[in-house]
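User: We ran a pulldown and think these components assemble together. Before we commit to crystallization trials, I'd like a predicted model of the whole complex to look at. Sequences follow.
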Amino acid sequence: MADLSELYQQTIVEHNRSPRNFKTLEYPTHHADGNNPLCGDQISLQLTVDGGVIKEVGFQGSGCAISRASASLMTSAVMGKSPADAERLFKAFHDMVAGGDAAPADPATLGKLAAFAGVKQFPARVKCANLAWHTLHAALQADQTPISTE
Amino acid sequence: MSTTTTWDVARVRRDFPILATQAHGKPLVYLDNGATSQKPQSVIDAVSHYYESGNANVHRGVYALSESATAAYEGTRAKIARFLSAREDREIIYVRGTTEAINLVASSFGRLKVKAGDEILVSAMEHHSNIVPWQILAEQTGAALQVIPMNERGELKLDEYQKLLTPKARIVAVAHISNSLGTINPIKEMVKLAHAKGVPVLVDGAQGAPHVVVDVQDLDCDFYTVSGHKMFGPTGVGVLYGKAVHLEAMPPYQGGGDMIRSVTFAKTTYAPIPAKFEAGTPDIGGVVGLGAAVDYLGALDRNAAAAYEQDLLEYATKQLGTVPGLRIVGTAAHKASVISFVLDGIHAHDVGTIVDQAGVAIRTGHHCTQPVMEFFEVPATARASFAFYNTRAEVDILVEALKGVRKVFG
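Assistant: Here's a predicted model for the assembly, 560 residues in total across the polymer chains.
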């Protein structure tokens, strides 16, 4: 049986309460909007990419604890990384929460993002965890159409 | 006032096998009847019995099995006509559900009556299925959508409504009961006001038929739509009631078999109603199941059921009020047993996941009413919607589970 404490881990609860990088950037080079029409989660993501490195990330929006904490932890995780490394992290994160057959990523790769491992036992919430990452992907692809998890 | 003496809920619950099942090792507390209701054994049996021994296509064969399938299919039409107090059986059109019923009217009645510069009235509390088909029609014709506003309790403003009933208004489309707020709209009065200006009215009865006795002649509405699965019948089948005078004038919605009188490559003539609107092989098994649902409801004391639901609504409203930080969204004077709520600082989706662990099934999200969420400035709500088989004890389980939500967030 799925256990609530595996879903709402301390890190997630804490980032939901005090999200990092919850702000608007002054001079973003990339941005994208994401929404999860099923539950109404919305995120607006901005990035400043300079010299092949994500220098700054900010997000705004509203959503459930999982989507909000995921956005907060995502912004912290990709800061200072190259877009290609951020995309690799997205793949590792996605494999973890979607619970595919792929071998689990090295815990060291995921760091604090490993707090979302419990999401895979709650299939209805996978989209909440992935929303910020899909939006990041859209922003990096410079695809400026709003993305949707549906 | 307690009505439990006149409503034997324990006996009614035994009619619904799923109510004895478990979720996450706890007894299932099913409070998502607004999304879909559960099915009594008689409906389940009718559908399996049909496929075991009654299955044939309708209106086609001359053999015994086809004739009995046709009799069951058309017999159910007569039952539904009586259930809704329609004047004639041919005013009952089988569709997939309320969504298809509204699309049918928007498309067909729209083509007949709506042109550039005209106005279509919908209310501020409509389900997306009673907004989007009209928007599509407005885009195609150059007509405009006008919105009947509501107050902060979730009641329509009838004075504003009357101002919108101008010579440009072609149709009013309004919910009988709001799926996200529970408001019971004053349909009879709204129809009277519209008819005084010569404007026909479509009533979205998806939430109406399960909760109140519907008399379309008394309401005097021009169209009334029903989803079978929300009134204890199977998914995939529903009903459009329309006054014969409208249905006869309206062009077909879909073309195909069963809806024609004769076909040549030069010219096709259409069958009379209701067949004109029932192209292709219908959901015969679904119709048979819907017939069993109508029989089931017909054997109940519906006034006692309604009084019982009102008692549950009052009890749940009071008990939910004891949950710290809980706010009910939708506080109309006349409500069905539907309660939307938000918990201060906690998203509805998290609420839904957490109470699910206690076996409680509630809906969370925007309930296909995004404009309602925007009006009340909430991203989403949690919604408990009760049927006559729910109990006060289930309300208590919900309330206890909600009190536990805040513990998860420390």
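Residues 83-98 of chain A form the longest helix (16 residues). That may be worth checking against your pulldown data before setting up trials.

User: Thanks, that helps.
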